[in-house]
């Protein structure tokens, strides 16, 4: 189901949100970040996006390729875009060698609150809201994995765009659009492809009328998109 609430509504999903933000200000647990600035997050803490959007990136240390397997080569970092966390939503940082998870502000003036899990003992209802939000994120990740299982790259690309716009899309006269920019390189890293291939396939999807652009080249799904109509049915 596509979003039907306004941005101001969707950014206040927790019943005790105002009390949390006041508490965070009093305890210096809130900070704003500029676009693409790394969030100094660490495992074991709970983070809440108060305003803006967070971009999650997975990084794995992989061996550099070599024509001679006997030559020792240093490990290289390989990054993959893992999705967004919007305003009013929680996230955690998980480290599992050789993988790490990093968070970056995707837009200017992104504000993040951090807490210890035991801080939620003061707000039991808020704890339930947070756990419900994590369960929802888990369900969306299962859909993401199903999309990435598609054999054809163009199917993975369209499924990926559809999932993002289902989750974060905002309406306009001719459909729904993703309110944040996303580079073709980032899309490629998410679906296991390259920037060049994504650019070519985006052109094909536009020609077929399955995607379109809104405002300053924001990705959008037109209202007559059959995938959109099927999901809304």
- CATH superfamily grouping of the largest domain: Jelly Rolls
Tally of alpha and pi helices: 7
**What is the quaternary state of this protein?**
single chain
CATH architectural group of the largest domain: Sandwich
Shape: globular
Structural class: alpha+beta
Rg, Cα atoms, Å: 19 Å
* CATH class placement of the largest domain: Mainly Beta
Q: How would you write the strand order of the largest sheet?
A: 1-8-2-5
Beta-strand fraction estimate: 25-35%
Tally of individual domains:
2
Distance between the termini: 9 Å
- Helical amount: 25-40%
Low-confidence stretches: 1-13
What's the pLDDT, averaged over the residues? 84
CATH topology of the largest domain: Jelly Rolls
Main β-sheet description: 4 strands, antiparallel
């Amino acid at each position: 189901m596509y979003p039907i609430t306004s941005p101001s509504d969707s950014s206040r999903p927790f019943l005790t949100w105002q009390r949390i933000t006041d508490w965070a200000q009093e305890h210096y647990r809130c900070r704003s970040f500029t676009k693409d600035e790394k969030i100094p997050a660490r495992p074991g803490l709970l983070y809440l996006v108060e305003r803006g959007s967070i971009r999650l990136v997975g990084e794995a240390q992989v061996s550099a390729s070599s024509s001679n397997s006997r030559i020792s080569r240093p490990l290289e970092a390989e990054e993959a875009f893992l999705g967004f966390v919007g305003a009013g939503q929680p996230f955690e940082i998980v480290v599992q060698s050789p993988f790490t998870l990093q968070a970056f502000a995707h837009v200017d003036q992104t504000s993040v609150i951090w807490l210890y899990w035991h801080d939620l003992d003061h707000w039991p209802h808020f704890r339930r809201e947070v756990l419900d939000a994590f369960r929802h994120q888990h369900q969306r990740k299962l859909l993401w994995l199903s999309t990435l299982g598609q054999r054809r790259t163009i199917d993975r690309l369209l499924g990926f765009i559809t999932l993002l716009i289902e989750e974060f899309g905002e309406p306009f006269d001719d459909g729904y659009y993703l309110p944040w920019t996303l580079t073709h390189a980032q899309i490629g890293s998410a679906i296991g492809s390259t920037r060049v291939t994504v650019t070519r396939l985006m052109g094909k999807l536009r020609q077929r009328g399955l995607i379109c652009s809104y405002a300053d080249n924001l990705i959008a799904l037109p209202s007559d998109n059959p995938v959109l109509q099927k999901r809304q049915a």
